[in-house]
Amino acid sequence: MASPACRLCLRNEQLVNSHLIPQAMYDYCRTADSEPVFVSNEVMMQTSRQAQHPLLCRNCEDVLNRGGEQWLLPLLATMDKKFPLLDIIERVQPDIIDGDILGYAAARNPQIEVDKLIHFVMGVYWKASIHSWRAGRTEPSIEFGPYRERVRTFLLGETGFPGSMGLVIGILPRGKAVISFNHPYRASAEGYHNFVFYIPGIQTVLSVGKCLPDDIAKICFATNPNHPIVVADLSSDVSRVFSQIASTARKSKKLTAYLDNKKQNRRLGS
Questions:
Q1: What is the pLDDT of residue 270?
Q2: Is residue 161 one of the residues assigned to a domain?
Q3: Between the chain's N and C termini, which has fewer beta carbons within 10 Å?
Q4: Containing structural domain, residue 255
Q5: CA-CA distances (angstroms) from residue 224 to 2, 106, 116, 142?
């Protein structure tokens, strides 16, 4: 029996286990006394078990690794308040200052590898659109419909950034960066689809549809030639998203015991 085709190049090659979230991301979110906390609307648990599935051939795994993962992952925010990507962004003056919100044109900063940031983010969204990543489920985590093929050919370098899409990149300040991540999920826009994906210090929103608002095109990191990046305290938004996702989740016994112990220690220290 022939091997299933690689979902990226579509060739019948031997498949390897692909991760929805890169393996190294779990190390960012592991503390001295806790494994990373996985949150979905079904379960909330401490685990180092990673979402993985045989989807891509070795060559296509390398396409995603070289395309953006290897460049971006060492630049994420860390538990000790370091944030190498923000260090790079701040080496040039902001183009827009609106109170505590700063706007930067990545096109003016040669140290920001724009193509790799786009490729990494779109790769994760695409992988979420081709597989469920949840036990007992068959439908993809998110649904791109007719746009999914355009993302596939973009990742292979065969076509440009897909039309009818807008990608917004938000960066959190060092002291406000939430050191966690979520699987891509559909948010609540009306008239088009929008999807959200967060990794330590970086909030991304991908909007998809023929009726995108004009302001999305203006701030799209991929298609605006200035490649705008917004630096702002989005921590309350990120925390609210995680709270909403977790609101219906069943907490594992291990996580419940860990949280109870943390509360007890805070009371004893007060």
A1: 45
A2: yes
A3: N
A4: 15-265
A5: 43, 10, 16, 25
Residue with tokens 């900063």: 109
Beta-bridged to residue 52, according to DSSP, are 19
Residue 211 corresponds to which tokens in the numbers above? 């009726």
Task: DSSP for 222-242, please give it.
Answer: TTSTT-EEEE---HHHHHHHH
Task: Tell me the pairing of strands 101-105 and 96-98.
Answer: antiparallel
**Residue 174 per-residue DSSP state:** G
Closest to 37 (Cα-Cα) out of 46, 28, 26: 46
CA distance 240 to 246: 10
Say if residues 216 and 165 touch (Cβ distance below 8 Å). no
| Residues in CB range of 69: below 8 A, 6 or more apart | 22, 120, 123
- DSSP secondary structure letter of residue 34: B
What does the pLDDT look like over 204-245, one tens digit per residue?
Answer: 999 999 999 999 989 999 999 999 999 998 877 766 665 665
The Cα–Cα gap between 152 and 190 comes to 25
Alpha-carbon distance of 20 to 113, in angstroms, equals 22
pTM (2 d.p.): 0.86
The number of distinct structural domains making up the chain is 1
